[in-house]
Amino acid sequence: MPEYPNLTTSTTKIVTFERRHIRPIPDDERHGTRRGLFFVWLGINMLPLTVVTGALGPSLFGLSLGWTILAVVIGNVVGGLGAALHASQGPQLGIPQMLQARGQFGYYGGSLLALIALVMFLGFFASNLVVAAQSFAAVFGGEDLNGAIVVCALVALAVAIFGYDLVRKLMAVFSVVIGALVLISIVIAVANPVTFVPHADLGYNTAGFFGMLAIGVTWQLAYAPYVSDYSRYLPREGGAKQAFWATYSGLVLGTVLVMILGALVGLTTQDGDAMAALGALLGGFGPVVLFAFGVASAIMNSSNIYSGVMCSLTVLETISSRISINTSKRVVMTVVYALLAMAGALLGKDDFLVIFGDFVTILLYVLIPWSAINLVDYFILRKGHYAVDDMFRRDGGVYGRWDGIGLVAYLIGMLVQIPFMVTNMYTGPLAAPLGFVDVAWIVGFIVPAVVYGLWKRAAIARGAAQ
Q1: pTM score
Q2: How far apart (Å, rounded) are the C-alpha atoms in residues 16 and 9?
Q3: How far apart are the C-alpha atoms of 102 and 99, rounded to whole Å?
Q4: pLDDT band of 259, cuts 50, 70, 90
Q5: 3-state SS, residue 203
Q6: Topology of 27-357 in CATH?
Q7: Mean pLDDT calculated for residue range 82-111
Q8: What's the confidence (pLDDT) of residue 360?
């Protein structure tokens, strides 16, 4: 493994240019703090896309404001636990989150999971571009989003090229600014009589409530594939506990706050344009908030590029032994990644709300089995003890090239969800008898966790006995 000079201890540089990439962060370069990590995860949800997601309760699921907020709170509180548990792995192992998948799925198998996460990051990046463009359109007028999408993509690209340090510092600044604007916006929206015009079609329905609750869980677990990308900069000693609470409190607080604003906005959203509805509710203060949201989304979207590139490099490294990961490859991958996401945003902007709703739901089905397997392996079977160096060996070392147990358990986790799925594209045969309440993600967590846990424990026991 190549050695690099110390790149993070300089006191003369405001921002350091990242050169570690997917390699472990040495103990003497771990200058991350609990406070800094908290603001990363608080700020990452101070985005217009979070407003749009909160608005789905009334606008898509037909829920009243109270039921939407309850579903949002429960879903995020539950899902945040999973994301925070994944984050606690970073200080111990010092490597990006999806590279850790090699410990459960093997050297090449882990890259398959990284590829899945890569698609997820592309989807979120593209979604953020569309909503950021809608924010600017609501401020400056006009219906053509193409120019704004391109500009937002280039801003995020510039930040992501610098890497972790600049992403972290900018997110900390914007989390405070946008947080204050969100609180003011909630007060204005509540005070606006238009917000609470009676809506006879809104109330409680079980399918809608559990659909919105599942979105809350999904929203948090969507961060699980990259929480360690940031927590790996915390010190090894005591860092796991710090990473857990900083990640959990930042994610849940930031998400719930902005989604509550989104729920208020959803009461008046028409034609799926939550940003226009937000601007109308806030009156003269609307352009200020929308402009700030647009800028914040363009900058904070860099986190989706950064972690997506970590997955890209993980996949790239497995292609050939001749490929070595260095700064130039990270920069090139960052540019390619941003261009792909930008193209997706430009192509899907007209049907954004429908595409995004299904994207979030499918994302949950894909992530849940991986999360279950990773958590069982890390906390129950191996208790945090991994041979990190082996994860960079092409033969996989003790983890092998492919781990059949992990891959089969993951496949089972995907298959058992199919009968329960509820999406616009496909609805499983057991969905109707359950009143179209989406419980697929619950089954998709429990089954692979049990299958992998019991099967892997038996395999480890056999290996120890030999």
Answers
A1: 0.80
A2: 9
A3: 6
A4: very high
A5: strand
A6: Hydantoin permease (1.10.4160)
A7: 88
A8: 63
